[in-house]
Amino acid sequence: MHFAYPARKNSNPPPYLPRSTRxxxxxxxxxxxxxxLALAVLGLIWLFSGGSKHKGGRVISGKPAVVVVTVFDxxxxxxxxxxxxxxxRSRYAExxxxxxxxxxxxxxxxxxxxxSWSKVVAMRHAITKYPDxxxxxxxxxxxxxxxPYLKVEDFVMGSTKLEDTMIKDFPVVPPDSIIKTFAxxxxxxxxxxxxxxxxxxxxxxxxxxxxxxxKFFLDTxxxxxxxxxxxxxxxxxxxxHIVQWHPTILSKLAIVPQRTINAYAGDAHGEQYKDGDxxxxxxxxxxxxxxxxxxxSERFSQQWRTSFSKA
Length: 311
Description:
By secondary structure, this protein is α/β, with parallel strands linked by helices. The chain has eleven helices and eleven strands. It has helices at about 20-50, 80-95, 120-130, 150-155, 160-165, 210-220, 225, 235-245, 245-250, 295, 300-310, and strands at about 55, 60, 65-70, 100-105, 135-140, 145, 190-195, 200-210, 255, 265, 280. A hairpin with a 2-residue loop joins strand 7 and strand 8 (about 200-210). It starts with 18 loop residues before the first helix and ends with a helix. Keywords: Glycosyltransferase, Transferase.
């Protein structure tokens, strides 16, 4: 990090000014930083005391309450497996009056970045398409929503629910990150909900409250600087970086138990799915072979349909 050197003193003294004129110049010079500081403080107060609930100077109506976002890789769009995922999202959204953004990674120009970055752009796209939604739930392609009765705004984002489930004063990136989740964060102040698996933060399923903070977070995450770092796990490691080193983001983050929104199926990398969980993900499945996503998901495909038919 480079620090500016102190300015050298000018050996030629300024011309003499009358006392009153000098006083006005000095006062103006000292007032400017105070004015800038005051504006910054007011901006922060606005942002964190309700400004994020406004869109374009008006209050967000919360209709729809939730938008479900999924990005498809486009490789097997006509397969029964992908059609089942699309139907799964649509039926869940229809039941609760939610919106959906079911899009393809090829719809976005990522300027050469890995396709996995498309989830960030898609969330920003969803805010543009549904400017009055209250929450956005990103769920990876290789996942099923299993419990049609659970509503995101209550089960995940309800203030009381968050108070009970968020993991406080805990390493953001386990096991030994020195940066920890806030110990005194209130449920009503949470803007972003994430989970962890055995490898770190898990971005296969996360929820954001719509508003100015959400746009700030997504724009920060997608910053060209982070995309140029060539992180080993692209956007996943970029997320870990900004969450740990940006207090404005960390101060609004709640980490909840993995099975709350991100249970895994037959995977040793995280908590296993149990009946009643809201969703099941297949994060390490492949395109073909015995561990293909279509094969790993088979036992859940009929299960979600049965649950939805009874709901």
